[in-house]
Amino acid sequence: MQLLKKIRIKYRFAGVLIDVMSGAAASLALPPFFVLPTLCILGLPVWRMIHANSRVEAACIFGAAGFGWFLASTFWVSHALIVSAPALWFLTPFVALTLALILATFWAVAAAASWVPHASALVRVLCLLAAFALIEWTRSFVASGFPWSLMGSVFAVHLGSLQMASVMGIYGLTLLAFGCAIVPVLWLLSARRLALILLVLPVLGTGWGIARLDRQPAEPTINAPIARLVQPAVPQQDKWNRQKRPAHLADLINLSQAGANKPDIVIWPETAFAGLPSQNRLLLADTVRAATHPGVFLLTGIPRFNEEHRPLNSVFLFDHQVGLRGVYDKRHLVPFGEYVPFRSWIPYLDIISGPADFVAGKKNHLMAISGIGKVQTLICYEVIFAGRVVTSQPRPDLIVNVTNDAWFGATIGPWQHLYQSQMRAAEEGIPLLRVANTGISAAFDGFGRQLGSIPLGERAYLDIAIPSVLTAPVFARFGNAGFFALCLVVFGSAWGFYRREKRKV
């Protein structure tokens, strides 16, 4: 009896380990690796989940796979702790494991919701397909939202497949990607027609995307307004060093003035001016004048205080001649980075995040820039929320995302952030300029085509002829409506199979 118990425990432990490793291996399909065949490894925990003996067991199996997926794809978040509090480096594994565990809970909930009692394995796997996609969408709202490592980002592997984002968005692509991942499971369940459909859909979508791009060649750059993206590559450890501030500002000015081109707008990254405007009015005014020429605008990240003396993460628009033309305050703050949820309950986190929370901006507004048009400004990870990057009417002509990914060093984090930006450009059909402190700075047109980039860690500038905004694609007009319709179709199919099985009984 004792021997049987030991065998059972070992078997269960081995099963959990296999599920975790399967999720971790499958995550190699995500940017920047794009090893797409690994996605099918998820079929192993899915097979085990649909044949589980209880709802709890199903949740544990698929939750373990999610833990491996998120641990492998979001471990880089813990690197910020090394930068902000080097003495606490030993806590980085705890941060990485905790984040992965929290995110894996969503996968566990999807499995629990789809484990229908007395239903066939086929019904359960179809329910899982829709429930998984819906729970990934839910992840963008719960606890401020953290829609990172979405499976649909695998379609950024090719510009042709990326075009499908203009129709169904990242969440629709997530449903499609997970559908491809479970094709081996469907094949084993003799649902081969459905498996072939799920394989053919991305092929057809990619073909359509290639044809779409062929019909829309790159725009001529004659008479197009020029934007200069400035990447100063200031190490995060030095960013707030007052002794080094003059040298940092001199670098920004020199990069803004370099070369023969005269840009229409110069863009600096998040918190490029590392000082409060109220305490550095003269220095800020002198910096703007030195960095620009008459008729040239400067867009830069600057922290500031509101009327209640609470900090805001902001972007300022300056005109060389007029001065300040507009201010945008970040509305979507990073949990545990810019504010601590339930701070009074966990005061020791002051060591990591600082003693005061940032305040979220109250409203969105477009900045009107002469010669360029209406500009939607996004700060840092505001760009990762599909369907919520454009919230103002009329439709903007340009999206500018300023960020500081120096917190994450040379990990995969900056690369993942880059591909998120590319996905937003393709979804909305709006050119997007991404300016990062240490990189990767890049520019995309409304199809998601990269127009240029500055490598990670390089101190440089990039001049970009700003392309025209596209006619609003399907996703920009209807948002996630197509995605929800797909989920209903899948749930409807599962219900149809379930009713058919009951009639046979």
Folded structure, characterized:
This protein has 505 residues and is of the alpha/beta class. The chain folds into two domains: 2-215 and 480-504, no CATH class; 226-331 and 351-466, Carbon-nitrogen hydrolase (Nitrilase/N-carbamoyl-D-aminoacid amidohydrolase). Helices cover 44% and strands 14% of the residues. The protein has 16 helices and twelve strands. The chain has helices spanning 2-26, 43-50, 55-74, 79-84, 92-114, 121-138, 159-162, 165-181, 183-188, 192-215, 245-257, 281-291, 350-353, 413-428, 474-478, 481-504, and strands at residues 226-231, 265-267, 297-305, 311-319, 323-329, 367-369, 373-379, 398-403, 432-436, 441-444, 450-454, 460-465. It has a six-stranded mixed sheet, with helices on one face. Strands 6-7-8-9-10-11 form a six-stranded mixed sheet, covered by helices on one side. A hairpin with a 3-residue loop joins strand 4 (311-319) and strand 5. Helix 1 (2-26) crosses helix 3 (55-74). It is globular and about 80 Å long.
